[in-house]
Amino acid sequence: MLLMLVKIVFVLIHVAIAIYDFSFYRIPNVLLGGLLVLYALYAPIYLGSEKILSALIVFAIVLVISFGLFAIKYIGGGDAKYISVASLWAGGAGVVKFIFLVALIGGVLGLAYLLLRDHLARLSDKVWVQIQKGETRYPFLQYLWIGSGIGAEEGKREAISSRMLPYGVAIATGAIIMMMFNLAL
User: Fold this and answer.
1) Into how many domains does the chain fold?
2) How far is CA 14 from CA 71, 139, 164, in A?
3) Which residue range(s) make up the domain with 165?
4) In tens digits, what is the pLDDT along the chain, a chain of 185 residues?
5) What are the C-alpha distances in Å from 59 to residues 29, 130, 175?
6) Is 185 within the bounds of a domain?
């Protein structure tokens, strides 16, 4: 029962990250923190100390590599943090499969953005507008999205261009597939 609840929360967090990244091109730290807390609750119960240690080593290695890629402006900072946290869940046994799966999904996503750029941009705008409306109606939602509808971002999407790719969608999809097919940990 507890494992099923962990899986449901895991999927919901990844779906929220994918939606947020698709519409805002950002990944909220609070959702990444939620994945870390969920892992801290899950791992001691369902994993042995060797698997936990292996997963922490994978997390550290991926974090260093991804922040190196961020430093040279190859990926975004949110993507660097997200791929690191998701790799923690993949663990030592699943990290290579996970990274390959994310790269494959990212390639398909990139191709879709090349072919359907205008359509996807309009869809992203529609999702963004709906989130803004939801935050106006239910202000507590701003805490989930960390101020997406307040402050400097309110009513604006200036930092978003049609050349950007919301790679958090690929990471989220890869993480959910890994969990569904028990390819990790």
Assistant:
1) 1
2) 25, 22, 20
3) 2-180
4) 788 999 999 999 999 999 888 887 888 888 999 999 999 999 999 999 999 999 999 999 999 999 999 999 888 899 999 999 999 999 998 999 999 999 999 999 989 888 887 787 788 778 777 877 877 787 776 666 554 545 445 555 555 555 678 899 999 999 999 998 875 55
5) 16, 34, 14
6) no
